[in-house]
Every structure is written in C-alpha cells, then in structure tokens.
Amino acid sequence: MAVTIQSLILTPPRTATTPFPCLKTSHLLSRSLRINPSRSFATPIRSCKPSDETHGSGLANGLNWTKPLLNFAADNFLPLALIGGVAFGLANPTLGCLADKYYLSKFSTFGIFIVSGLTLRSDAIGAAAKAWPVGVFGLCSILLFTPYFSRLILQIHLQPQEFVTGLAIFNCMPTTLSSGVALTQLAGGNSALALAMTVMSNMIGILIIPFSISKFIADGVGVSVPTAQLLRSLVLTLLIPLILGKVLRESFRGLADYVDHNRKLYSRISAVFLSLVPWIQVSRSRSLLLMVKPTVFIVAIGIGALLHLILLAFNTLAIRSLSAVTGGSESIFAKKENAQAALLVASQKTLPVMVAVVEQLGGAFGESGLLVLPCVAAHIIQIILDSFLVNFWLRMDLPSNTAKVA
To answer: How far apart are alpha carbons 403 and 401 in whole angstroms?
Structure first.
C-alpha cells in the first residue's frame, strides 16, 4: 500500500505527446483557416524593409530636421547665448545670485579679455598704414565724437531711468571686439584698417572711458564718479588680461596658429563668458525687472536701435564731408573699402567693456541688471542692422561685378 502511494506521488502524470508537436498546431490552424475553394483571394506579397533600416531612415529624417536648427544656433551663438543668459536669470535667479556671491562675473570678464588678446592679430595692422587718416578719424569718432550723443540720450525720461542711463553708458564705449572686423571682411572692406581701429580703440578706450562717463553721464545724472578708482579697476580687469592674452599669442607661435585655426571655438568661449555677466546681473535684479512694463522695455530697445542709426548717419556724413574736403573722388576717404571699414567700426559699441564698467561702478548709477539689459538688446540690434547694411552693399556690387565679367 505504501509502495503504491509512493509510486503515485513520484510518478508524473502521462501526457499524450507527438514527435512533432508543431504539426498538430499547424493542422489545427489549417482547419480553422480552411476556405471554400470556389472563393479565392489574391494576397499580394510585399517585401518589408528590415526594422533596423526603417529605424535608420527615421533617424536620418530626424537629423535632417535638426540640422538647419543646429546651423542657425552655430551662426547666431552670441545672440542666443546672451538671450539665454537673460532668460535663465529671469526663470531661476538662485544660481545667478550664488555666482554673484563668489564673484564669478569678475572671473568671466577676465576670461573675455584673455580670449580677446589671444585672438587679436597684429600682422595686418601694418597694412593699414596707408589709410592712417581714416583710422585717426575712426578713433576720434569712437572715443571723442560719438560719446557726445550720451547727453542727448539722457534727455529721454523713462521709468526705470536705469534703462536710459545704461544706453548712455553704452554709447561711451569703444567699438566691438570682433563684429566690426567680421562684417567689414564680409563686405569686402579694408579689414586691416578695421582691425587696427578695433585694437587701438579698445586699448586707448580703457584709459578714456572713466573721463567720458564722468563728463557726459555723471554730470547729467548728478552722480560723482571716482575716476581714478574706475581707471585703476579697468586697467586691472580689462587692459592687463588683454595684454596678457596678446603677449601669450606673440610668444608662442604654435599657440597663435592653433587659435587662428579655431577662432570659432574661441569666439564661442568668449560668448559663454559674456553671457554669464547678464545672467548674474539679471538674476540679482530679477525682482525689479519683473516690475518693468513690457512696453517700457520695448521703448528702450527702440531707443537702442535709434541710437545706432544716428551713429551710422553721423559717421556717413562725416566721411563724405572729409572726402569732399580732402580731394573728392581721389581722397583716401572716398575709397569704398576704407569708408566701409570706418563706418562699420566707428558706429558699433562693445558690450563686454560696458558690463565690466557697470561692475566696477558698484551701483553708482542704479541697479546693474537694469543698466545692462537694454544694452544687451542694443548690442544684438546693431549687429543685425549692420548685417542688413552689408547685405545691401553686396547686392549693389553684383551689377558692377557682372558688368566686369561681361
């Protein structure tokens, strides 16, 4: 009995198995799918792409869609970086305030001018010697003449008044570090002359800016500026790193070649450094910025665009007058290449030097974020307007070039 029970427990139940179980399944399937022979269906046989090939084509279509977007971001890296810094500061000011606590903006300013010194090429400056009268006019316009328009800007009443004051400070700055030269080269102008004016105006401008701000802005706002202290601060934070970068470039030939072959990389590094400053300042002033009406900010942007158009008109009139006085069509001012270089470079103002100056002022003219924000917009607008001007020049040159070929 025990043996019988043990055998019942240990012996598994027998199941009917067939040597080819699939045949049974297929037989049942064929019976279930059996159709009346009188009815026939023509089932087309289609070749299917492998799944990995289909996935690859979908991925390629996705990449084709993102390629124009990436190209646009690469071509407009600086404006996007500046807009992104402002937007990030408005969205989440915590990190920006933390960066301000550890003086990150001062390090970023130092980095901007180290990179500027590394990328400044001086080998072409000698080629601009023949056009030295145009270069002298450009320097005088940048550093002496155009700052007078700051007094005109200060006559505008806008709340907050820091928007107007910031644009007035921006008008006292030297020319852009790279945009003027790049646009001159694109237009076919005298890029060597543009480069010479850029280097010299930024070098000399650091020494002149404190006096320009004290004369044109401090008197109008009613604020005293410690000129000597500001000059010392600008020399330490702008001039010394600029000279240091230039010395490194000239000391190591391999470094100069590497920088020249990777100028886009260094321009993007400089753009990232530059975007840190408005990010920190907007983060610090977020509560005040949110109180500003959008219409007021749009008016400030309009003032910045109008300022650049005024500078273009002033420099155009001055160049034509000097051309008429110094020999007409034979004058060195009448040469299209020289006139284009002087007009573009003398009409632009640099943002990095402006934000460095605002940092050193320590709130003497108001909240730094409110001072810088309209200048970020003005900096972007001047590049956009000048790019349209260069495109207009290139279109004007097309008929003459076609006639020459014919």
So the answer is: 5
Q: Which long-range contacts (CB under 8 A, 24 or more apart) does 210-215 make?
A: 210/234, 212/143, 212/147, 212/150, 212/172, 213/169, 213/172, 213/357
Q: Are 311 and 149 in contact, with CB atoms under 8 Å apart?
A: yes
Give dist(CA 161, CA 370) in Å, integer.
9
- Residue 25's pLDDT band, with cuts at 50, 70 and 90, is very low
Q: Who has greater pLDDT, 177 or 261?
A: 261
Please determine, for residue 401, whether its predicted confidence score (pLDDT) is greater than 70: no
| DSSP reduced 3-state for 20 | coil
Please tell me which of 8-22, 70-84, 301-315 the model is most confident about, judged by mean pLDDT. 301-315
What DSSP assignment string belongs to 207-264? HHHHHHIIIIIIHHHT----HHHHHHHHIIIIIHHHHHHHHHHHH-HHHHHHHHHTHH
Distance CA 83, CA 24 (A): 70
Q: How far is CA 18 from CA 15, 21, 23, 26, 30, in A?
A: 10, 6, 9, 13, 18
| DSSP 8-state secondary structure symbol assigned to residue 47 | P
Residue with tokens 């917009």: 377
Q: What is the pLDDT of residues 333-388, one digit of tens each?
A: 999 999 999 999 999 998 888 888 887 787 788 888 889 888 888 888 888 888 88
From residue 29, alpha-carbon distances to 26, 43, 290 in Å are 5, 18, 72
* Residue 305 · residue 378 · CB < 8 Å: yes
Question: CA of 159: how far to CAs of 155, 220, 277, 296, 299, in Å?
Answer: 13, 16, 23, 7, 10
Provide long-range contacts, Cβ within 8 A and 24+ apart, for 65-74: 74/264
